[in-house]
Amino acid sequence: MNKAVYAAGALCWRLIEGKVHVLVIHRTAYGDVTIPKGKVDPGETLPQTAVREIGEETGLSVNLGVPLGMSRYLLPSGKTKVVHYWAAFVSDEAIRTSQFRPNREVAAIEWVTLKKARTYLTYAHDVEIVDVFEKLVAEGVTHTFSITVLRHAKAASPSAGDGTDAGRPLTPRGLDQAQAVVPMIAAFGPRKIVTSDAVRCVTTVAPLAAATGITPKRSGKISQDAFEEDRADPRSIIGKRVSAGKNAVICSHLPLVPELLREIALATGSVTGSYIRSAADLAPGDFSVVHLSATNPSSGIISIETHPNPV
User: Fold this and answer.
1) Regarding the domain with residue range 5-139, which homologous superfamily does it belong to in the CATH classification?
2) What is the β-pairing status of strands 106-113 and 287-293?
3) Which of 168, 234, 240, 247 has its CA 20 to 30 A from that of 39?
4) Could you tell me the pTM of the whole model?
């Protein structure tokens, strides 16, 4: 059986004298020029792998932006390799603090223009990823931020807590799910966490808050009780987050998830449709990441990606 080998990476980019440049690596063992990437380690998820590999191969600390798709090709072993890519903006601070040294895997890293990258890269599948990114450049939507909509992890019945719906705790599996999403969501560089004030939502984001140092803001406007009493207000929550233009995580309940995503679409002038319904179909602990233009949020949703909880 031809079992696929999964990998992840990112097309790192920055502005040099006002012009977009992307990062390529010269690999020592293969003598080729490629986009940084690497295989998924046991227990890892794709976003986690992408950030780790960028750090290991280039010395750069990055957050993931818009997904750029995937490449699929045969390895000499006959196995299929599937590589998922994201765009990743590299700040001046990341450049200053980078720790790259030539090693047995990577001989050198180099910033090149998009035009040079096309002729410089060894593999056609890498060039295809550059082409996808160049479309974003042409549309003026390279600078992005994301709003991650997270459904709370698996919760117990009300009898396991204080007897109320809002007091329902997480099950042991739910606690594991809350831990599992930390490196996945952290890969997108959250700056703000907003959560329903229900215990199951607050507990879901607690490990992420501890890992990032972000104090979650609790809100009754996106609680199950508010939804059932027809007093929920996802619009005001989303409006603030879109206006802020910073990476944010919003943790809520299944009935509120489609409302939150719909409000993102409306706030950014996007057409609502089946893609919103698909992104809202989240099991406990799953999340969808909505990518928006940082310079012109009203230009619409650039991309949505949905990630299942691995637990």
Assistant:
1) Nucleoside Triphosphate Pyrophosphohydrolase (3.90.79.10)
2) unpaired
3) 247
4) 0.95
CA 115 vs. chain centroid, Å, equals 27
* Residue 248 tokens, joined: 């944010």
Task: Provide the sign of the torsion angle of the four alpha carbons 287, 291, 294, 297, taken in this order.
Answer: negative
Predicted confidence (pLDDT) per residue in 76-94, tens digit? 888 999 999 999 999 999 9
Structure tokens at 291: 């990518």
pLDDT tens-digit map of 110-124: 999 999 999 999 999
- As a whole number of angstroms, the distance between CA 234 and CA 288 comes to 16
Residue identified by tokens 């957050």 is: 63
Closest to 237 measured CA to CA, from 193, 281, 189, 288: 193
pLDDT of residue 228: 95
CA distances 248 to 92, 191, 223, 242, 297, Å, are 22, 6, 18, 9, 14
CA distance linking residue 146 with residue 191, whole number of Å = 10
Are 121 and 54 within 8 A, CB to CB? no
